[in-house]
Design brief:
It is a single chain. The protein is 26% helix and 24% strand. It is an alpha+beta fold. The radius of gyration is 29 Å and the shape is globular. The N terminus is likely disordered.
Length: 787
């Protein structure tokens, strides 16, 4: 197809979406279902919608193939939720590591022509390729393509984290000096660096940029007109918006930078194009005017290589005893699963727009394949059972650790939902009910099943007893300078301590216990993404790490909040005197409705052992200005009495409450808002709505130690405008997180709820019954004295 023809087709492809936007049919760009698969489409549609709803996924597209026919292809949800653009079979997605299949097909074409030899040393094609190889066995294309080369997972430059957009040449050249993790052909070590190298062989031997060569050698012959390895404008115009999420509750739009290792993961495509690819696979590689590959070559690609679970490029498995070939893909905000049953000539591809939703798309794809098999047999059968949230009572009762530290399961409750961290597997997911069982069912994973016993759970073959919730010990001094955040906003590496070991939380979701090799060297475990690789810390003269190399990727330390323990401060957008003048002359919002009569009481009058550190009565606060004339704390009586109960209960654990702020006049809230930069406003209340502090039903506080009288050390400081303030922030030490959990549990047991973005801020349950108030402390004090 000529460039003009290609552009014309892409322009025409936009018309259905444009017509939908002006009110024409909303199912444009979708296919089917075809004869024999109507019942399957009818049964799968609500499953997909339910998974999207339960997992918070904005768009899913699916295509099913029976030999040479696309029997069903459609989108669900919105490719652009903000503009209400529907997803369809023609929506463009980034398909991550599914890209590898096409890179490997490009290589196999040249193998068929005798231009490349799978078992020749890679240096025959890339003479400068020189990773450190102490094993004496040369690297080959076959090893690289079946993940048996022992090469590091990521190249130092152009890796998954690197937003700088280096060339493929720079990316592969950066592997010089990296050391093989394993002897070639001895271990399966999934490696993006390996497939980047494979792609560079294409580029160097064919004398063309990789993306251009793949387009005319592979994508165009396959008829994949809406697929590319570079962000062509027409394709990007139809690219779905994808979303990242984190364990601490953030959701943000996914970055779209190009990977330097493009052959391993930078392909754009549609489920319609990928369906066409599967049909060619089922035809034995035949095209209308030739072949993409010989059938014998495809069969070799689908055969286990060098003792691995991979063929040449293709991941190998089975579905209900049927041979399955394909690949998954995960790249910033997108999750893809392409699965084929080549002996039955059935295929399914599913793509979603939420980061690491690979469990979801894999389950849908496999269920579709099962449904196609049973539909062919004349009796459709699906086994995609729906899970339900656990009961609120169980969500509150179950939290705690079960089993030994580092090897057990930790349960947490948030907003009536139950979450489990499987420490050995290094992931966290929501626990839901499936029939009479409990099962982890989340974006990230489905399974394992948990059985609940008295004070114990059964996980697999292991019965794990509930552990005592004791305060963790202190972190060894040699580790303190290593704990923190490293890397980028779009992908942050956390070094934290838990269960008496340092851990790495990498790529947002993968939590790995580390083995201390020496003072500055720690090893990843023998499982997971970075198996066999190390972390190397570089410290300054104080012992604080400036950066860490995790595997072969260098992560610079991030400046987060006030790590030195000093008070976090901002530069107000306007002078404080001007802010105060403006706020005092402004009027609070005029609220309509019936409200309970305010009864603000001074907390320490109810219990003088509650300590005060009212920061806003001093300059020791984020704005370095005085806002209150007196260091006093007032709350509505029900909230104040509940707080006293919390304080007295905590005494049994050796702690008391230290209040930083309680009732706050509305004009102070307005000053905070007007002073704070836009990117930090999540930490201050909008005066247009008022704060719960203004209603006398919110309190900022921490714990103090009854023996020493000193405040305890939390993960982040009070009024710190950083991620460390989030109630679910995963970093820090085990002791810090334990103290944060003790405070939250005690407060929520008496009717308070923590604010998700501030571990110290708690709202009382009746806050909405009170009006916004603007009285100063002296005015309230006079009212209290008269009472």
């Amino acid at each position: 197809m000529t460039p003009i023809g290609l552009g014309a087709r892409r322009a025409m492809g936009l018309i259905p979406i444009l017509l939908w936007l002006v009110g024409c049919q909303s199912d444009a760009g979708n296919v089917g279902p075809r004869s024999g698969y109507s019942d399957l489409a009818l049964a799968l549609s609500p499953v997909i919608k339910r998974e999207m709803r339960d997992k918070g996924i904005t768009a899913v597209s699916i295509a099913l193939v029976d030999d040479q026919k696309v029997v069903w292809a459609r989108g669900f949800g919105y490719a652009d939720p903000e503009d209400s653009v529907p997803a369809s079979a023609e929506t463009v997605y980034r398909v991550g590591s599914v890209s590898k299949l096409f890179t490997d097909i490009g290589i196999m074409q040249l193998v068929e022509r005798g231009q490349l030899n799978l078992d020749a040393p890679v240096t025959a094609y890339l003479p400068e390729f020189a990773p450190v190889n102490p094993f004496g066995k040369q690297l080959t294309l076959r090893q690289l393509m079946s993940h048996r080369s022992g090469l590091v997972r990521e190249p130092p430059v152009g890796n998954y984290f690197d937003p700088s957009g280096p060339s493929l040449e720079q990316t592969v050249n950066s592997l010089t000096g990296t050391e093989l993790v394993y002897e070639p052909e001895t271990n399966t070590k999934y490696s993006n660096a390996a497939i980047a190298t494979v792609g560079y062989v294409l580029e160097q031997t064919q004398g063309q940029p990789f993306a251009q060569y793949l387009e005319h050698a592979v994508l165009e012959p396959l008829g994949m007109d809406w697929s590319a390895f570079e962000p062509q404008p027409a394709i990007v115009d139809r690219l779905a918006k994808a979303y990242m999420w984190t364990y601490d509750g953030r959701v943000f739009e996914a970055p779209t930078f190009q990977l330097g290792m493009a052959p391993a993961g930078s392909m754009y495509s549609t489920v319609e194009d990928l369906a066409r690819f599967m049909s060619v696979m089922f035809s034995g590689g035949r095209l209308e005017d030739g072949t993409i590959l010989d059938a014998e070559t495809l069969e070799e690609m689908w055969t286990p290589q060098l003792g691995s679970g991979y063929g040449i490029g293709f991941a190998l498995s089975e579905v209900d005893g049927h041979r399955r070939v394909g690949h998954g893909g995960a790249i910033y905000g997108f999750a893809t699963e392409l699965g084929m049953l080549p002996d039955e000539k059935l295929g399914a591809v599913v793509v979603a727009t939420k980061d690491v939703a690979n469990s979801v798309v894999r389950r849908i794809a496999d269920e579709a394949l099962r449904g196609m098999l049973t539909s062919r047999a004349g009796q459709l059968k699906l086994s995609f059972d729906a899970t339900e949230p656990v009961s609120a009572d169980l969500a509150v009762q179950l939290p705690g650790r079960y089993g030994d530290e580092g090897e057990g399961v930790v349960f947490e409750e948030w907003d009536g939902r139950l979450w489990a961290t499987l420490e050995r597997g290094g992931f966290k997911g929501e626990v839901r009910s499936l029939g009479g069982d409990l099962i982890v069912d989340d974006v990230f994973t489905f399974g394992p099943t948990l059985e609940l016993l008295d004070a114990a759970i059964v996980l697999g073959r292991d019965t794990l007893a509930r552990s005592a919730d004791e305060r963790p010990g202190a972190v060894p001094p040699r580790w303190r300078g290593l704990i923190g955040e490293y890397g980028w906003d779009h992908n942050t590496l956390y070094i934290l301590e838990r269960a008496g070991r340092l851990h790495a939380l990498i790529e947002w979701f993968f939590l790995y216990p580390l083995e201390e090799v020496s003072q500055d060297v720690f090893a990843f475990p023998s499982w997971g993404l970075y198996e066999g690789e190390n972390l190397l810390f570089d410290r300054d003269e104080t012992g604080r790490a400036n950066h860490v190399s995790a595997g072969s990727v260098r992560f610079e330390r991030r400046s987060v909040g006030s790590e030195d323990g000093t008070t976090f401060r901002i530069d107000p957008l306007r002078p404080v005197d001007k802010l105060r003048e403006s706020a005092l002359f402004a009027d609070p919002p005029n609220e309509q409705g019936d409200f309970v009569q305010s009864e603000l009481v001074e907390v320490v009058q109810l219990d003088p052992t509650i300590e005060l550190d009212i920061r806003y009565a001093t300059t020791n606060n984020f704005m370095s200005a005085v806002f209150y004339d007196e260091p006093r704390a007032f709350l509505q009586r029900p909230a104040a009495e509940a707080l006293v109960r919390v304080h007295r209960q905590l005494k049994e654990q050796g702690f008391g409450l230290l209040i930083h702020d309680a009732y706050r006049p509305w004009h102070v809230t307005k000053m905070f808002w007007d002073a704070t930069p836009e990117d930090k406003k999540i930490f201050v209340a909008n005066p247009a709505n008022g704060s719960r502090h203004n209603r006398g039903s919110a309190v900022d506080l921490t714990l103090y130690d009854l023996v020493s009288g000193n405040p305890v050390e939390m993960v982040g400081g009070y009024d710190e405008f950083s991620d460390r303030s989030y109630a679910r922030y995963p970093g820090g030490t085990a002791s810090q997180r334990w103290l944060r959990r003790v405070l939250r549990a005690a407060m929520e047991a008496e009717g308070f709820r923590v604010y998700p973005f501030e571990w110290w801020h708690f709202d009382y349950q009746d806050w909405s019954q009170y009006r916004i108030q603007n009285e100063t402390f002296d005015m309230i004090g006079q009212e209290v004295e008269r009472q």
